[in-house]
Specification:
mainly alpha, three-stranded antiparallel β-sheet, 12 helices, globular, disordered N terminus
Length: 285
């Protein structure tokens, strides 16, 4: 690579790029090795997905927004690749949890790799109504031991399959659809409808068509992406339902059976469904 080319292959950084990059320690209060790591796009996508799944939205002034801004700067500077993520974040995860203080106010706590990076009281969190006499939940008990699986406060309806698919469109929206993604989307759609077959013009059919199209395209920028298929997924499903463990296992099996290395995509359909199922189980009394 010549010195006149600022961009570098995805997933690679060198000493010069690390010096130019916005690092986690510049954006949030973290220590150790994470503080010196460049903020990467896939880390930001993971945080947005966690906020969206737990809170129903990405907070304008939350940690995910700050991390996303830093990742965007690094991407524009060419010091990180579009699909790059930090191993420590992918391994140890991101936690977004709801709890309540003594006054009954909802308090949102966010952590990266078990380090708390944000704690605040939002004024508009979907499905969360502060009460002067809150009932303790399992979410309240996890303040001292954040987990990579986001715990949730009271949510009477649970995360649906459509909502999980929409979260996938946020977390890995720029990823070209492959056969594993298409199989997972087909399985999710079938489980939402309670059928053994998919709608001929449904999300699964569109995902399969996208995966087939992408195999015939030479360049990523011409390919059909996850967000192209799954944006507003909940409104495109003929029926929807709360995600269960059985749903997540079925979708995971479908994705794995169509992946060459038998690995699901981090933040992908199976991964998001599994997280939604765990979140829904946390909400059960």
């Amino acid at each position: 690579m010549s010195q006149g080319q600022p961009r570098r292959p995805q997933g690679q950084t060198d000493q010069a790029s690390d010096q130019e990059a916005t690092k986690y320690g510049d954006v949030v209060d973290v220590t150790g090795g994470l503080a010196s790591k460049p903020v990467a796009p896939q880390d930001a996508a993971t945080m947005r997905a966690a906020e969206n799944q737990v809170l129903g939205k990405t907070l304008d002034a939350g940690a995910a927004s700050d991390v996303q801004s830093a990742a965007d700067r690094n991407l524009r500077s060419g010091v990180v690749g579009r699909n790059q993520g930090n191993e420590v974040v992918q391994r140890e995860g991101v936690t977004v949890s709801n709890s309540r203080d003594a006054q009954g106010n909802v308090v949102v706590t966010e952590a990266i790799a078990d380090q708390i990076v944000g704690q605040y009281v939002p004024f508009d969190v979907r499905r969360t109504t502060p009460s002067p006499t809150p009932t303790p939940t399992r979410g309240d008990s996890q303040w001292t031991a954040p987990s990579p699986t986001p715990p949730v406060a009271v949510n009477p309806t649970g995360i649906t399959i459509g909502e999980a698919l929409e979260a996938t469109a946020i977390s890995v929206g720029d990823k070209p659809v492959d056969q594993g993604d298409a199989a997972a989307i087909e399985a999710a759609e079938a489980r939402a409808a309670g059928l053994d077959v998919n709608e001929p013009s449904g999300l699964g059919a569109k995902a399969q068509a996208a995966a087939t199209f992408n195999t015939r395209v030479a360049y990523d920028y011409n390919m059909i992406t996850i967000s192209d298929v799954l944006s507003d997924a909940a409104s495109k499903l003929p029926q929807d339902k709360e995600v269960t463990r059985e749903d997540a296992e079925g979708v995971t099996g479908a994705e794995l059976s169509n992946k060459p290395f038998l690995m699901t995509t981090p933040g992908g359909v199976a991964d998001t469904m599994a997280t939604a199922a765990r979140v829904n189980r946390e909400e059960k009394p």
